[in-house]
């Protein structure tokens, strides 16, 4: 665990987002377990071995268009050329003869290029009269052909190990005639909420209580990632209960995610229990929201102790946890952080020295895109996450934002 540089010494300065993210990722390596699954079952799973193309895709030179297969050398450079149509090639039903000098074959998209022909002329540009076709000048030799192996070459790596399979990958695997692939086993993630004021849904609230929302946002995010989930509920803030929860979680899961009770000066026992049962660093991050976070290991399980505030949970999950889980799942390379520059449509003053993740809504201004703030920005205001479609990422040195300033946004699409 590369967390020695991040002591709990309160005099130490705040840890930057990038440093924390790098420390987390550097300390993790992919799971060892894997299994062979049928193509459909590979959706969302991560390839453990390269998928090698057993033959060319496409397997034969074929036409990209409906038209005529001809020999480019037959064409007159200056005027229309009349060619004799000697047959038809359909997809799956090739023309068996040879295209000789002065001849053409009617051809459909996907049909094999007949022997002798080297060029496809699209049907829209020719004139047909009985068994003759008039081809205008200006055709380029080799046009409108799809070459054998153009998509995937035989023996080549069609998909590299570490690729997470989406719809395109399933199709690609099937296009190679491959029925099963090796994938990493699913990551097992145990998660629970802590805090004496946190109540599970299904019963009325007592005075001072709040319903547990973090377990539901985490459930949603982790489900999207395809993890096997162990939802351990709300654990009361008692040493015996916490100890049992951490013990059970570390036996059953690869990763433990908790929320609440990790900030300094809390009366909670959770920090104490994490420190006693594992090797855990308590970080003060230069981030808003989400300043306190714990990271380490309890026995063989990787531990993320997220803050309690519902927005802070989501911010820290997406900025620190999700990529870490992808790495454990075997994904390589990790997807680059998607960010793009847009104009701010809001005013804000900001403290230097921390990265802020505001909740934003993208809007179209003619051809340009701008971003407005999505509701109140408190770290407990979950409606801002629901209203938003992106994070607005303000770097540590930013002091203020004026309308028209360029800011970076991280769209939720693909993230959530
Ligand atoms: P903490 O980090 O434990 O100090 O919690 C910060 C704030 O988040 C407090 O107002 C908690 O009540 C709230 N909170 C903690 N856990 C949850 C949860 N699971 N669901 C909703 N709110 C929570
Ligand atoms: Mg608390």
What's the arrangement of secondary structure elements?
Layout: H1 17-26, E1 34-38, E2 51-52, E3 62-63, E4 67-70, E5 81-89, E6 103-107, E7 119-122, E8 127-129, E9 132-135, E10 145-146, E11 157-159, H2 167-175, E12 180-184, E13 188-194, E14 198-199, E15 210-211, H3 214-224, E16 228-235, H4 239-252, E17 255-259, H5 270-277, E18 279-284, E19 287-288, E20 292-298, E21 301-306, H6 310-328, E22 340-344, E23 348-349, E24 355-365, E25 368-373, H7 382-387, E26 390-394, E27 400-401, E28 406-411
Parallel strand pairs: 5-6, 13-16, 13-17, 14-15, 17-21, 19-24, 22-25
Antiparallel strand pairs: 1-12, 2-11, 3-10, 4-6, 4-7, 5-9, 8-9, 18-20, 20-21, 22-28, 23-27, 24-25, 24-26, 26-28
Helix pairs in contact: 1-6, 3-6, 4-5
Bound molecules: adenosine monophosphate and magnesium ion (MG).
Magnesium ion binds near residues 195, 260, 261, 268 and 308.
């Amino acid at each position: 665990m590369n967390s020695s540089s991040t002591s709990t010494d309160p005099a130490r300065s705040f840890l930057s987002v990038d440093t924390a993210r790098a420390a987390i990722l550097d300390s993790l390596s992919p799971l060892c377990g894997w299994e062979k699954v049928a193509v459909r079952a590979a959706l969302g799973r991560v390839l453990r071995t390269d998928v090698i193309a057993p033959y060319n895709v496409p397997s034969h030179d074929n036409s990209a268009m409906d038209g005529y297969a001809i020999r480019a050398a037959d064409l007159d450079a200056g005027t229309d050329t009349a060619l004799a149509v000697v047959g038809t090639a359909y997809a799956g039903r090739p023309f068996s003869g040879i295209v000789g000098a002065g001849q053409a074959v009617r051809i459909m998209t996907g049909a094999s290029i007949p022997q002798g022909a080297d060029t496809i002329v699209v049907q829209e540009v020719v004139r047909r009269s009985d068994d003759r076709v008039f081809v205008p000048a200006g055709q380029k030799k080799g046009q409108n052909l799809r070459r054998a192996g153009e998509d995937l070459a035989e023996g080549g790596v069609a998909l590299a190990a570490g690729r997470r399979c989406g719809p395109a990958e399933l199709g690609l695997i099937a296009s190679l005639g491959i029925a099963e692939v090796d994938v990493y086993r699913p990551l097992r993630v145990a998660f629970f909420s802590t805090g004496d004021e946190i109540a599970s849904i299904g019963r009325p609230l007592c005075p001072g209580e709040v319903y547990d929302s973090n377990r539901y946002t985490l459930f949603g995010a982790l489900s999207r990632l395809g993890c096997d989930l162990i939802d351990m509920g709300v654990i009361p803030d008692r040493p015996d209960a916490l100890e049992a929860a951490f013990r059970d979680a570390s036996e059953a899961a690869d990763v433990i995610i908790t929320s609440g009770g990790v900030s300094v000066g809390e009366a909670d026992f959770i920090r104490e229990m994490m420190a006693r049962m594992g090797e855990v660093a308590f970080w003060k991050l230069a981030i808003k929201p989400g300043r306190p976070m714990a990271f380490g290991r309890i026995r063989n399980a990787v531990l993320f102790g997220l803050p309690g505030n519902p927005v802070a949970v989501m911010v820290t999950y997406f900025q620190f946890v999700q990529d870490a889980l992808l790495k454990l799942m075997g994904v390589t390379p990790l997807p680059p952080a998607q960010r793009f520059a847009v104009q701010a449509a809001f005013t804000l003053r900001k403290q230097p020295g921390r990265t802020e993740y505001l909740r934003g809504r993208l809007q179209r201004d003619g051809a340009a895109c701008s971003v407005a703030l999505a509701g109140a920005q408190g770290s407990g205001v979950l409606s801002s996450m629901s209203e938003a479609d992106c994070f607005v990422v303000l770097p540590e040195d930013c002091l203020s934002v004026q309308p028209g300033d360029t800011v970076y946004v991280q769209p939720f699409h693909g993230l959530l």
